[in-house]
Write a structure and sequence with these properties.
Shape: globular
Protein name: Zinc-type alcohol dehydrogenase-like protein
CATH class of the largest domain: Alpha Beta
CATH topology of the largest domain: Quinone Oxidoreductase, Chain A, domain 1
Subcellular location: Cytoplasm
Strand content: 25-35%
Subunit structure: Homotetramer.
Number of strands: 16
Helix content: 25-40%
Pfam family, one: ADH_zinc_N_2
Family: Belongs to the zinc-containing alcohol dehydrogenase family. Quinone oxidoreductase subfamily.
Largest sheet: 7 strands, mixed
Oligomer: single chain
Radius of gyration: 21 Å
Order of helices and strands: EEEHEEEEEHHEHEHEHEHEHEHHEHE
CATH architecture of the largest domain: Alpha-Beta Complex
Structural class: alpha/beta
Low-confidence stretches: 1-5
Length: 349
């Protein structure tokens, strides 16, 4: 007996790793619609966000993929099927998540994702507003609460945190989480629009990362800060080490080739933490379900009006041309908030 052909779906993919100006850098393809197994959910994707990690994964190199590779690590959509081991969601549930970098990404109409890294979409946000948040929310939450050990519910109130890259995607949610937890936030920003953005999210102070950050922070009255978060790159390592208090902690999300002298970290007994939000899914850690829980916690906070989306731009539709433009904007390094791409094109008649 012959099997019927698998249903096809639209996707944006790559086969070669090219500069984003090349029209072949991202291409429109049709792929078979996947089926969920185990604890997977099959999600109909309604909106995706574009992050620096997307551009890094797609960056030019000599590799050629034998089959189209789909990337994309932020999504909001609707569950259409659940695997036999799935218990947290059922068809019809609206969800948001950042996915797993070791599996095909979310830039496709129907996407498989393990339910343990999926949360319920905030009821008060539409799909585009929700898609802006999962990756940066997980990163900011884990950086502050799991890595730095800040008390989520106010036990660290009154402490200070310096955030490099405060107006970017991760910083935009981290500022809000830090203020919710009672911290004083100093965020770096260099342009009028990014300064205004950081302040609108709740930052108490801003300093210009293009200038002498140490002098600016100390001019605000802080000899040291309790915590430092580096949400852009490690060029600021020396300033971070100078400003962190003895026995304080620095968290970074950047993999770097910059020098990282450790002498002062040792004499301060200060800690360095690495945050990589894909680690739990990549390594199938025993606490993988914590991402499900934290996404649900943040959804409740959003629905209660205590946190807001960080979407800055919404582009349409989800196709190769639009995704190339979103990647181009990300690669400028000047994004304020998040860029979201919404809605696959309707099928032609």
């Amino acid at each position: 007996m012959t099997r019927p052909p698998a249903a096809a779906m639209k996707a944006v993919a790559l086969t070669r790793y090219l500069p984003i100006e090349d029209p072949e850098a991202l291409i429109d393809v049709e792929l078979p619609r996947p089926s969920p197994q185990g604890r997977d959910l099959l999600v109909e994707v309604r909106a995706v966000a574009v992050n620096p990690v997307d551009a890094k994964v797609r960056a030019p190199k000599d590799t050629v993929e034998k089959t189209p590779r789909v990337i994309g690590y932020d999504a909001a959509g609707v569950v259409v099927e659940a695997g036999p081991g799935a218990t947290l969601f059922r068809p019809g549930d609206e969800v948001w998540y950042a996915g797993d970098i070791t599996r095909p990404g979310a830039n496709q109409q129907f996407h498989l994702v393990d339910e343990r890294i999926v949360g319920r979409k905030p009821r008060t946000l539409d799909f585009a507003e929700a898609a802006a948040l999962p990756l940066t929310t997980i990163t900011a939450y884990e950086a502050m609460y799991d890595r730095l050990g800040i008390d989520r519910d106010g036990g660290s109130a009154g402490q200070s945190i310096l955030m490099f890259g405060g107006a970017g995607g991760v910083g935009s949610i981290a500022i809000q989480l830090a203020k919710r937890s009672g911290l004083t936030v100093i965020a770096t920003a260099s342009r009028p629009e990014t300064i205004d953005w950081a302040l609108s999210l709740g930052a108490d102070h801003t300093v210009d990362h293009r200038g002498d950050v140490v002098a600016q922070v100390r001019a605000l009255g802080f000899e040291h800060v309790d915590h430092v978060a580096i949400f852009n790159d490690m060029r600021h390592w020396a300033a971070a080490v100078e400003l962190i208090r003895p026995q304080g902690g620095i968290v970074t999300i950047d993999d770097t080739h910059h020098p990282m002298p450790m002498e002062m970290m040792k004499t301060k007994a200060a800690a360095l933490h690495w945050e990589f939000m894909f680690a739990r899914a990549m390594h199938r850690t025993p606490d993988m379900i914590e991402q499900h829980r934290l996404l649900n916690f943040v959804a409740d906070e959003i629905d209660a009006g205590r946190l807001r989306t960080t979407v800055a731009e919404v582009l349409r539709p989800i196709d190769a041309a639009t995704m190339r433009e979103a990647h181009r904007r990300i690669e400028t390094g000047a994004a304020r908030g998040k860029i979201v791409v919404e809605g696959f094109p309707a099928a032609s008649s």
